[in-house]
# Entry
Amino acid sequence: MTHVVDWDVHNNVHPFLYTHFTKEQRNIKITGGLTGMDFDKKRACCFTGHRPERLDMKEGKVIKWLDEQIHKAVDDGYDVFISGMQRGVDIWAAEIVLKMKEAGVPVHLIAASAFKGMEGRWEKDWIDRYNAILAKSEDIVYVGDHPSRAAFFARNEWMVDHSSRLIAAFTGAPGGTKQTVNYAEKKGLEVVRISKT
# Structure
């Protein structure tokens, strides 16, 4: 059964959200089946990575590496995966998790979007893939209520705050991926990075 939960930011979400959103925007909408995000973050893993045009390595290599890291995470006891739902690494990782789930592996996917309509300006293929993932995710989290740079950073922090491992297709470029990796390291997460070689 699908349901929507309002999550009180004062009690359950990193203070970054409190300072960057107005009072009316401080509820995170959650739609899904993990009952108000009732899961052990020690078994949760999230993803970060550059968008396709910013990757300085072949797409096939990144997807193969993601597949290996997700399977390793499952072997290590992780069964909840959180995707930030951006084009590239996030979408590829979510598709791998869903493929595993369809093959009978007991994994769960949480789609964490910065805001509703985040995909609105993308090419049709990416929009279709985004919507297909939303349709198959156990939970959908909309961190912000409106488009803003702050919503993307808040989404990244939300994912890190609800995970114990970060799988990062990070090659050193500045931006949101770098900030997510830095935040995860500061919070003590295990960070698994792709190698350029």
